Amino acid sequence: MALSAADFNYRRRKLISAVMLGAAATSAIGMIAVLFLILGYVFIQGGQAIDFAFFTELPRPVGQEGGGMANAIVGSLIVLAIAGVLAIPVGFFAGIYLSEYASTTFAGAVRFVIETMAGVPSIVIGIFAFVLIVRPMGTYSAIAGGFALAMIMIPIFARAAEEALKTVPFSLREAAMALGVPSWRIVLRVVVPTAGPGIITAAMLALARAGGETAPLIFTALGNRFWQEGLTSPIATLPVQIWEYASGPYADLHRQAWAGSLVLVAMTVGIIGLVRLLYRGTSFRQF
Amino acid sequence: MTQQAPTQTQRDSRDHSGAGPSLQATQEQRSHIAKVESTDPGTITIENLEAYYGNFRAVAPVTFTIPGRKVTAVIGPSGCGKSTFIRCLNRMHETVRGASSRGHVLLDGEDINGPKVDPVLIRRKIGMVFQKPNPFPTMSIYDNVASGLKLNGIKSGRPMNEIVEQALRQAALWDEVKDKLKQAGTALSGGQQQRLCIARALAVEPEVLLMDEPCSALDPIATLAIEDLIRQLAPDVTIVIVTHNMQQASRVSDMTAFFMMNEQRSGELVEYATTETIFTNPADKRTEDYVTGRFG
Amino acid sequence: MTVEPAEPGLLQKLQASAREQVTGSPGDVVFKLLALGFTLIILLLAGLLLYTVWTGASESIGEFGFFSFIVTQEWNPVFREFGALHVIVGTLASSAIAVVLAVPVALGIALFITELAPPAIRGIVAFTIDILAAIPSIVYGLWGLHVLLPFLDQHINPLLINYLGWLPFFDRPAFGFSLLTASIILAIMIVPIISAIAREVIGSVPTAQKEGMLALGATRWEVMWKVILPYARAGIVGAIILGLARAIGETMAVTMVIGNAHYISANILAPSATMASIIANEFREATYSLYLSALIHVGLVLMFISLIVNILARVLVWSVASDPGGDRR
Question: What digits encode the pLDDT tens for the residues C198-208?
Fold first, then answer.
């Protein structure tokens, strides 16, 4: 009798195990299904709406069908370029300082600040850029938008650049030192080139991440139905334009929003996915 | 007591002949250390050199002379401080965080530990080859050899091609790589990579070449090639080679220094003599035990 | 130098040009200062961020007080009355529900990838889940607004009201724009974050621990439940809090589906608002400076809350990095 009771107990445990393992597998499958559902909508809806005019024409007045987001696509690239110009040197040199020069304590403190910065909600970064730049300038502008995106990029890029530099084996620095090369040349001519692919990857990932941001742009770059007039005036960007179109009541603009999303996903998910595929096994969880 | 902070008295006791048991020990130990008179270029005179990691003394004061244009082997059981010692000879030791050294190392009479001496400049005169071959992965074979000059932005009087070829010939690698100089240095075999690293070190025409177990990562055939190379280089450059392989030391070197760990776990120079003496007629019992394979 | 080098010429040149470059190592000094300068810029920006947002909120702080603003539920731009309680509650509620929904799924995925999946598909599943984290939040918002929201409104909400309507959480009016819709979108967004970190932590559980338990006749689930999850507990809690931090700060996806309603309701099928959504929705329409300052004040509170949560999470994840078992007893 005791044996069969144990037997029953064991069967019950096996059953629980099977059910829970099944649930775990279902979670994974379900989540993958959600991904395909989201990407599927973006590709199908966006694919149907996208055409040549989408890339070449300005938005048409409400009520008229057609038109495109040419200004927003170009605007996004301009704002991203500004962000890159501001963020990449800062992140690059800070990464070098942290990996090559900083004392353990100082590097730890800076790392803490950087990671804390990365945790600040992007809408707050938008407020920061608004109060610091938009208000004194008296106008929304591409520069303010670029600055806000740079604030998103800097912590991501600085940490990733530091990590990339740290993967360079000490033996290479040692080899260069033994040749009597001063440390700054070792860093620039040996360490940075060796970490080159990693640093470029990090920059691309940071750009992709910033390129998908909307919240910091709403009240910095603002938006514009026409071509931008220089860097000190409001500028259209893809994410903000998608938001405005999606929130409105017009079916034609919804279609354009899907088309815009397709372009945005191709740009951001495309880059991040590609990099992930190339560097599988590397931990890029901050992205 | 494994940790011992360097104190003023300690260092002073080595400098003048005060009494005390520790000094006697030093003198007794010195008696097994051969006096070398050398005026050849590349002569290294070491006086009371000691090395620290933080407060831990990894190498107890060492005093001896390495003759110029000869091969000197540094042998001893693992952990005896021989690698640390050799890294003090071109101030590579201090590149490790928390590491420091004391005492004097004179290259042809000039103290490389002097207060105004730039360690970067010293390392161009005293090159180094490491345990594992470490060619620069982003550079071609050619650029690796040229890197010592290129990275330093030095325009030499001779054309770069000539310098690279000469260094590769000296390293006995020229015939194997002359047709693929543009290929990546990391594409070579382990033994070729190590000879590439030797060529790289030779291209800046150092007075001294330090080799820290250069064959430990290589197969026997590649090892043999490096050993031949060491013999060939000796007339042009002083070579100091750390090895745990006694056969290797006996094959390649003119002089041999035997290091061991003392009770404080510091490396200590036990005996220094011609290689022949060390391996056939060592003065110290510990040396004899080691070279006859009784421990280590 | 007392001794001539064996081959004069090159070495002399070498020494001469080396002296020029290395004496006092000006290159090294300049380069190090340059790198330090850029590092200090980051610290400066961080300080400036805190200072700027604080000054932007100062008018509101002066008018309502930093803390009484937090505990007042009042949002009436017409009468110049502002208090953030309802949006703080909305933020915490939507994030909490999102975490409750996301954690079992995220842990299931992490266990599936590390313990169950055949090696051949392990990488593919991990990659696919990670891609979810790369989708911009505006795309989540668009999808949530035009796909998920109508679906919930037509198919799920009626069921919830029918069967669970006796609870105060599921009640009419239900428009689709609701706290629940926002929470579901947030849950989808934070699953990849939680599962990615949980995966790493679970991966660090020593095989010996698992084998020991298996050898005692435990089932695979018992090994997961009694060995792996307790062992990785601290790290998993860190991962969850990091997910929570992300949910608290998320703006666009929430803004587009939550309905932006200024009241507190137990009914999670009713529209609501979060700190981030109110800023995104009203910032450009803030017509006078006190209104704007109140919105920045909301941003200030949001920043403090997410900083606290983030730091908490980092500390937990860090403690795991040094000791995979965390505070095991």
Answer: 998 888 888 88
| Residue A168 C-beta-side C-alpha neighbours within 13 Å | 30
The stretches of chain C forming alpha helices (DSSP H) are 10-22, 26-64, 66-71, 85-111, 119-134, 137-143, 149-151, 157-164, 179-203, 207-215, 220-223, 229-231, 233-249, 252-258, 275-282, 289-322
The per-residue pLDDT for range B284-293, each reduced to its tens digit, is 889 998 988 8
Buried b / exposed e across C24-33, counting CB within 10 Å, b at 16+?
ebebbeebbe
**What domains, with CATH codes, occur in chain A?**
71-278 (1.10.3720.10)
Could you tell me the pTM of the whole model?
A: 0.85
Residues 24-43 of C with CB under 8 A from B: 25
| C-alpha torsion B160→B166→B168→B170, nearest 10 | -150
For residue C29, which residues of chain B lie inside 8 Å, CB to CB? none
Q: CB distance from A107 to chain B under 8 Å?
A: no
The span from the CA of C142 to the CA of A238, in Å, is: 13
Q: Do A254 and C146 touch (CB under 8 A)?
A: yes
Fold of C85-322: MetI-like fold (1.10.3720)
Q: Does A22 touch chain B (CB under 8 A)?
A: no
> Mind listing the pLDDT tens digit for each residue in C66-110?
999 999 898 888 888 899 999 999 999 999 999 999 999 999 999
| Residue A151: exposure state from Cβ atoms within 10 A (0-12, 13-18, ≥19) | buried
